[in-house]
Amino acid sequence: MNLTIPSSQTVDLSTAIAPRDSRETVGQPFVDKARMECRDVDVSYGDTQAIYGVSLDIGSNEVMAMIGPSGCGKSTFLRCLNRMNDTIDSCRVSGSIELDGQDIYDKMVDVVPLRAQVGMVFQKPNPFPKSIYENIAYGPRIHGLASHKGDIDEIVETSLRKAGLWAEVKDRLDKPGTGLSGGQQQRLCIARTIAVSPEVILMDEPCSALDPIATARIEELIDELREHYTIAIVTHSMQQASRVSQRTAYFHLGYLIEVGATEQVFTTPQHRLTEEYITGRFG
Amino acid sequence: MSRLRTIDVVQGGLKKRYRFERLFRRLGLAAIILSLAFLSLLFISISMKGYTAFVQTFISITVHLDETKIDITNPGKAYYGSMVKEALRNALPEVQGRRDKRSLYGLISTGAEYQLRDMVMANPELIGTIQTVWVPADDDVDMLLKGHIDRHSPESERRISDKVIGWIDDLENQGVICKKFNTTFFSSGDSREPELAGIRGAAMGSLYTLLVTLAIAFPLGVGAAVYLEEFAPTNRWTDIIEVNINNLAAVPSIIFGLLGLAMFINFFGLPRSAPLVGGLVLSLMTLPTIIIAGRAALKAVPPSIREAALGIGASKVQMVMHHVLPLAMPGMLTGTIIGMAQALGETAPLLMIGMVAFIVDIPTALTDPAAVLPVQIYLWADSPERAFVEKTSAAIMVLLTFLICMNGAAVYLRRRFERRW
Ligand SMILES: Nc1ncnc2c1ncn2[C@@H]1O[C@H](COP(=O)(O)OP(=O)(O)OP(=O)(O)O)[C@@H](O)[C@H]1O
Ligand SMILES: [Mg+2]
To answer: What is the DSSP letter of A120?
Structure first.
């Protein structure tokens, strides 16, 4: 599948809207200050292709929201960005993905520092079956970010505070992380990810198990993190996407249909599929 | 036409479902009861036969440790048998005649003179004194007193004549015969004389053999399982290896014995009958069990844990060591213990490497010749003396105790590891 991307986008918003069956990316997939650059990324699991020629930039200090119907390949694409797909034997990734100009799929690239740099929060909460404290302390410890107990304690506390979990768990740090509720576990996983201070954070539906208060806390956190970090977030909540993100990418059956400034995508979508999805005619 | 409501359909089928459930539960319960019944039958019949081996008939003799017969400078050289015989003659002065006297001496185990010798050597001041000591009775006396020889059966069918029975009754009336706890059984090695035979040699042999097996098979098995499950690429080679490991698990154990004989003894020149070689052979046999159980345990660790570890930048080795292996450990230990329990009960391969020899000395090193518990059971079960029947059962009881301890240890270890969630 070869995809051509219009080099300069001069779409007249009032008139042109791409038809339903067009699979070309419309909008502005590229930015000037790109942190990650993906070009013609194809992903397949065995014989079934899950991502078709996605080209997309993720700018620095921006929150990129990825939306789209279930099964359209959002998680798959996100997992390519820190090579988590390497762990799936049948998964093949082609095309190029660069982080700060370095192709992360290059043979020379070591995934360990890559993943310390590009952290990930998974769709399903997956705390380690260890204590809450150990869950957070593990990352900083293996990377040698802190060696003194005091330093680690501090990292644990600030990470938990940022994830809005500190008040709930400060008295039970030595209790198993798996004993928390689903929403608390997800916040623990977020705290665990930010404890290693990655530069890019990939979040796969981080709020799907959270109540509105915890969701608000996480959204606040995302806003704070944006000052220093780059964030890609998959979400099913259009409100969330419009609240936290600067740019939004709409995926459909493995194709990147539309990318653009969040406000523009939500108010004046340039593709029929995007329009149908965000107005609720397609779900 | 009225529409069928789901609840009505469900109600209609409910009875059948519950009937099936009840049937299933009863079948399960019946299976458990049946196996428990067989198990208790086994335990009961073995204990009934074997418990008598834990007591032993002793005869008290009053011996004069004659200073004229014992050289103080070399007390080990003296002939203590004559002193034992003299003591017996004194106890039953009515016994006369060469043949009768010989039967009389037969009341006491040949071990008695060695017991006296050891006593004197440990404490030379006893020389010249008169001592009363309890010495083991001959196994025929033991059998008679335990009721295994029927004194009302025709004399020709007994190993003990009426006359000798009379002497024994006489000694009993004098109060110099009694049954005591049989420490010999737990403290000595094998012997041709049932009353002197003990299980310690075989138990130590088994212990050493199993230690070697554990020390080799556990790390190798866990290492192989971790490598195959976590690191090896999936290609034709790993498929072949997998098939072969599964095959190895099903190879008859005697073939491992032959391999051990050819390789460890004939090629590497390791000693025969040694726990070292036995352990090596048994670890070959246990390895596939541990690898297969280990791989199953590793597979059961949820992939989300691996992703979590890799996702924050743990290397693969760190992921395995810090997260996957601790979670898989309980399962691996279970597999190991099952393998070790098999190894404990294994006889055939050990026959091949000479561990079936008659060995009196208790092994003190991995290269000392030794027997193991199942081989000891086999040897005793094969012995003609009536007294070895109870020894066999007692040895089986010791083996089962070993097994229970091992399984207990497994449960304990599993709990400990599981407490780390
Ligand atoms: N491990 C895998 N093996 C094979 N196919 C997979 C695997 N993971 C995902 N897929 C397939 O890839 C496609 C995209 O899946 P993906 O998980 O990326 O969807 P998604 O957009 O994240 O959906 P959701 O919103 O439900 O999370 C789906 O068709 C799915 O069946
Ligand atoms: Mg997903």
So the answer is: E
